[in-house]
Amino acid sequence: xxxxxxxxxxxxxxxxxxxxxxxxxxxxxxxxxxxxxxxxxxxxxxxxxxxxxxxxxxxxxxxxxxxxxx
Length: 70
Description:
Layout: E1 2-6, E2 21-25, H1 32-46, E3 49-54, E4 56-58, E5 61-62, H2 65-68
Parallel strand pairs: 2-3
Antiparallel strand pairs: 1-3, 4-5
């Protein structure tokens, strides 16, 4: 498993050094990169970060619950 992320370049310039964050977990046959791609332009316009989690090892080969929730 891994994460794909987008953090706006000017995130550290926000008054309280924080910005909203969207955490995504893809559906069946999806990927973290697809979630990032789908949200990227909206995040740039509305100034929020994205963290997309990958939990599928290969097609129809998902991580077991004990690895996802550990």
